[in-house]
Write a structure and sequence with these properties.
The chain has 200 residues and is of the alpha/beta class. It is 26% helix and 26% strand. It has a seven-stranded mixed beta sheet with strand order 3-2-1-4-5-9-8, sandwiched between helices. Strands 6-7 form a two-stranded antiparallel ribbon.
């Protein structure tokens, strides 16, 4: 009997059409736009968990960033590619992305981190830190408190490791939390930077 492969989309492939119908097109836009404006236009950004590209990917593009995108759901990536055919997009789990073989000026993971198993989240954070250029920025959303819950759409368990644990992982990877934010959907943002190397 062939073993069943784990669903790296954490339930979003099966529920892709419903997600695309239901995704609020305003939540997160203003906060992500403000973050984008901390980056010069033309800088490279890797988006982990891009979904079908609306609205977050659209904001990254509109703000003049050079986008690369990853999502584990084939249906989501198909939707993304139909909207942004010129953007390099990869269908795979975030932790398996080949885009981690290059470097970026920024990494964004909106609505992804807490969908990943608790043991995978530090792996993804470490990989994001490693590909950041000095001075690069990393944005992700996850609850401020340590909490687990069942995702309303997918019925899959979600894991928020909490601010203290995320800060510990980020410090270990040489990334500093520089701020936070909360958007109109009560999503909590971790705003971080990889410090530039200081000269001697």
């Amino acid at each position: 009997m062939t073993p069943v492969e784990p669903d790296k989309s954490n339930g979003y492939e099966v529920n892709a059409e419903e997600f695309m119908r239901r995704r609020n097109q305003k939540i997160g836009v203003a906060t992500v736009r403000e973050w984008c404006r901390s980056l010069p236009r033309g800088r490279s950004v890797l988006e982990l968990g891009c979904g079908y590209g609306q609205p977050i990917s659209q904001v990254l593009i509109d703000e003049g960033l050079d986008l690369y995108a990853v999502d584990a759901s084939p249906k989501m990536i198909a939707g993304f590619r139909s909207r942004f055919p010129g953007v390099p997009a990869e269908c795979c789990a975030a932790e398996d992305s080949r885009f981690f073989d290059r470097t970026f000026d920024a990494v964004a993971a909106w609505g992804l981190m807490f969908l990943l198993p608790a043991e995978v989240q530090p792996v993804v954070i470490a990989k994001a830190a490693q590909v950041l250029n000095p001075g690069g920025r990393f944005l992700f959303t996850a609850p401020k408190e340590a909490v687990t819950w069942i995702d309303v759409l997918t019925r899959v368990e979600s894991f928020g490791l909490g601010q203290e644990r995320y800060a510990e992982i980020l410090r270990r990877e040489g990334v500093e939390i520089t701020g936070d934010a909360v958007d109109e959907g009560d999503n909590y943002y971790y705003l971080t930077v990889k410090p530039a190397a200081s000269g001697v």
